[in-house]
Structures are given as structure tokens and as C-alpha cells.
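Supplementary Methods S3. Input chains for the assembly prediction are listed below.
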Amino acid sequence: MTSLATRSVTAGYGDRVALRDADLELRSGELVAVVGPNGAGKSTLIRVLAGLLRPRSGAVSLDGIDLRGLDRGQIARRIAVVPQVFDTLFPFSVREVVGLGRTARLGILGRASAADRAAVARAMRELDLDSLGTRPIDALSGGERQRALLAMALAQESDVLLLDEPTAHLDPAHQLATLDLLRRLAAERGLVVVAVLHDLNLASALASRVVVVAGGRVVSDGPPARIVNEELVRSVFGARLAVLPGDPPFVLPRVGGR
Ligand code: ADP
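Predicted C-alpha cells for the full assembly:
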């Protein structure tokens, strides 16, 4: 059982505060969708949860241990992050990129063990990458690249998986396949999975919990059927959206004053 929690976390950049007073407890088995408008503070929340951005005040803890007490390697063995952008200066092959996920686990000689190779092979299979293994990462489509990054994170075999817009470049079939995989990783392997998502319908259909971030604050948190309602969606995303209640609820645009 893993738990990742923030207690009264405020964080930002320079003199800009991007996240205020965030209190969240994220547990094994959950697929948590973080939703909210652009600039709301979602990526900042992911960075803080990953230990990549230090809170200005408050604390983040993993199984009750303050992240400030853990070094980078200890954090990387427990928490994997799939960033929105990933730039390499070197044209690594897809298999090499997925292998980077094992870096925090390599022995002192940096040699890949049988366990490392098995984790890389499994992650590539799960993301449908077997036919792309030798292709340079910078010669892939946006969607293929996104799957390779997700495989890199899976190969890490962490307890927590944090993803910043993992479906942004995927076609509808791969969006669904990816979220289904994330849901299974949470339900079957007991991972804590937190994903920033923009599609409220995919989030409602597949996440077990929706965390709404707006204006740097967590404004709502709970199961989709309760959280994704017309009042909330219109107050956070604007009046041009409507919601058909249900489980899952369904968000649709209002067009031409209808
Ligand atoms: P979201 O992911 O919801 O779009 P972010 O967490 O990226 O929002 O950004 C929240 C706020 O912090 C925004 O006002 C954004 O301009 C600002 N911000 C994000 N990253 C940086 C940065 N590296 N330096 C300065 N300001 C930043």
C-alpha cells in the first residue's frame, strides 16, 4: 500500500505562486485525473508530487516520509514521472529510451541485469512498441514518442506513476488504450497513478477520482459522477459547456446559443 500526500503545499517560481495550500492524499489502486484550465497549476502539482519542485511551505510525503529526507535515487525508485516534453540531445533508439527508465536501479557498474532487460521488454510490449525498438526517438510521430515515454516510466517499476498530459498526442484508440492500461496498473498492480488530462469525458469514464485545479487551488476532489457536474464545469471552464449527469457524466459543448 503506497500513499503520496501533500500537506498545505504552496509552491511557485520566483515570486509567482502557482499552487496554494494543496492538501491531497493519493493512494494505491487509484487512477486520479487532474483536470483544470491552462495555467491552473496542474503541472506544478505534478512537479511537487515528483519531488522536482520544492514546496515553499508545507510538505510532500511518501508513505509518511518527507520527500526532503530522500535523495534523488531513492525517489526515482519509488516515483516515475512522464513529462510533457522530453528533449534528448542524442538520437537514442526507442529501446534505449525505455532502458533509461532503469537508470536508478543499475548497479555500480551500470550494467543491465536480466531483471532490467525483462522490465524493458515488458514495458515495450505493454505500450505496443515492439516494432519500433530500433527507431531513433526523434524520428517518431508525437503519439509514438508519447508511448515510448510512458514505457520508459513503466520500466522504472515504481510504486507511483505521475503523468503530465499522457494522451495529448494520441489518437482516440491509443488514448483509450493508454488510460485503460493506467487503470489496470492502478487496480491490478496497486500503483498510485496520477495523470493530468484535458478530456473531461475520458477522465470521467476511466478515472476513479477527479481532482480539479483552478487558479492554483484544488477546488474539487472526488469520484467523477459527483465532481463532473454542470455547475463545477461551467465555473471552472466557462459557460459554453453542458453536462449530462450520469455515471460517467458526459460533457458537451453548447453551440450557437442552444
Ligand atoms: P497548468 O499545468 O495547469 O497549465 P502550470 O502548473 O504549468 O499550469 O502553471 C501554473 C502557473 O505557473 C502559470 O501561471 C504559469 O505561467 C506559471 N509557471 C509554470 N512554469 C513556470 C516556470 N518554469 N517559471 C515561471 N512560471 C511558471
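The mean pLDDT is 92. Residues 3-253 form a domain with the Rossmann fold fold (CATH 3.40.50.300).
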